[in-house]
User: Fold this.
Amino acid sequence: MNKLKVLNAHKVIFHAKNEGYRFGLDDEFWELSRNIKLNVGEVTERLSDNLRYGYVNTLKYFAEEISPGSVKQINRVFMKFISFMSFDSIDEAVMLTTKSSNKFSSQDFICLRILIKKWYELGFEGITQNCVDLVDNWTIKDNKKGEVVKRRDPYQGPLTDMEFDNFYDAVSRAYQKGTISYSDLAMALITIHTGRRSLQITQIKTKDIINERTIDECYINIPRIKQGEKYRASFRRFRITHELFNIFKEQARIVSESFSKQLGRKLSEKEMLELPLFVCKERLEGVVECENLHEILSSDRLHAYAIKCTQTLNRIATTEDVISERTGEVINMNARRFRYTLGTRLAREGYGEVVIGELLDHSTLMYTGVYVQSGPDSLNKIEDAVSAELGYYAKMFQGVLIKKSEDKYPGGNIRINTGEKSGQCASCKSCTACVPIPCYTCMHFRPFVEGPHEKLLEYLLDERNRIQCIVADPVTTQILDRTIIAVSEVINKCKEIKSNPEVLNG
Assistant:
């Protein structure tokens, strides 16, 4: 293990901003949170003694005062900086060469400026006055936050209504099939409905799921993370439905049961309040009875890693083959896209920057304007002329084709607007959906190969045009689009089977 050569006789152990995390200046790795572990050693081994002392002590200041993610960013950029060129001190010439390079982004320059100014301010050697004056007067281009929202980026930006609905259906479908756990279901739903960042989602504890019986309201106390405060220092309430409340309370019960099983005893009320809503299974397996158990539970050590959100969302999209109608590929998913989607939908409904900022938990209104500027005119639309083409790959249809002679499913026959049978329902559960419109996107639908699907498609396209003539709102016009694509896909599959009967259900 690499040991840093640091002359510091005053302190051996330092406390990171996140409670429960400690590090030493001579440690190769600094663990600042459950998500952030810095490789400081790979940076310091490239530095002279003069620069090494100044760097680790300045980094120590940041580790104690700012968020672990920001410290990680500073360490990453400085590693990039020293890999770009060699120097014994950071002076004006070094920074002029760096600024003229095209290897650094605007965000990189911002990080370097913050580091250099604080390094000099703390009085450590290695930085010249001219260097500080230079970076202090830098004009750094805006890092273009909100660009993916403005251009409706199909890979990173807000989801279209169709993409959103397809993914939402896929979450329920994946759980019914058993391809995701109850915890995955709860994590996906809380991300979709709140639009919060992954780190916020994974910081939630079971005590944050609340039912105010006196006013018959349910809500989540969601930790705030962008205000420069310590771990779970402040919260913002987010109202939820009773149905979601029941799902999250069941997730809390499952977590409590897992901890009780691990410890071999019933948990106290005090312990139960500190349990994470989403637990890191690997760390849970290492939990044992100890004097500081409550301290461990109170910290973030047993919470799921933030990356778990993105992994869960992407696994659902992949296993359920959720295709974007814009790209023809499986949708790239992360929590940020649901955040963008929520902001875009709020703007579309006519809400202003203040309301959007409040609901998205922004500390400033600096970036909420991007949602309002995008406006409803830039909504993605589906053209009727290409609906059949889209249906070939969009995979809205989730059921299985059958022959009309296979009259065997418990849900009975499904009829289209003309009264003709189009298929059957394979579910024996009560369904309150207004058939047949929702059926074509339902996993339980079993359309007949010989069914009158072309008639339904013609009716749906006419209905869409009728709505478009009556209402100028593009959102209302697009209500039938998912079904139109699903019916088109069924028609294409029927044609394929009729030309080659061997492919039925193959």
Summary: The longest helix spans residues 242-263. Strands lie at 14-15, 22-23, 29-31, 37-39, 209-212, 217-223, 235-240, 413-415, 421-425, 445-447. The longest strand covers residues 217-223.
